[in-house]
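Input:
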Amino acid sequence: DAKTTQPTSMDCAEGRAANLPCNHSTISGNEYVYWYRQIHSQGPQYIIHGLKNNETNEMASLIITEDRKSSTLILPHATLRDTAVYYCIVRVGGGTSYGKLTFGQGTILTVHP
Amino acid sequence: GAGVSQSPRYKVAKRGQDVALRCDPISGHVSLFWYQQALGQGPEFLTYFQNEAQLDKSGLPSDRFFAERPEGSVSTLKIQRTQQEDSAVYLCASSRTTGAYGYTFGSGTRLTVV
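Output:
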């Protein structure tokens, strides 16, 4: 699975949009981009995933560049409860692939009042 | 159940002791994973089950680690002769299919070996 690069930490003011970048320059055509987050003392929580089109759900939006070498997770109105470690993961998906997740160090997002 | 349940939540073991960690996945979920998370690190893959079949155990760090899922539902991760380096949070995750979908993680078992 392709390696990802994320900033170690980011800050965001409550109520503002949080934009978390991820570089995955070696991504292959059949690899999806996944985002998970982990709040302190909890297991990781699935947020969103995509292949090449932008995706949006009730939690966040995922913007993938046209060349698919990078992506951005957007939390439109960050709250204090969004403070967590955010992991960008790239892996093969679809079909019979069970796709184990390879977590990196992630980005520590701190939302300030 | 509503989510993935893991027990115990915390376990303190003396070095050399055997431990068993339990995972109750969401009912009907086909895929089950175990991950190990050391302090300050991201989770690392240990093993994968599809129903009762253990299809990948490439992440198990040694032969002291053993996992089973005999009836395709509840899974147990067993660690024999625990060592201090086994201290970590052990996470279980499940998914209703084998494809490219999001997995639901439990809150984990924090194992401390003293």
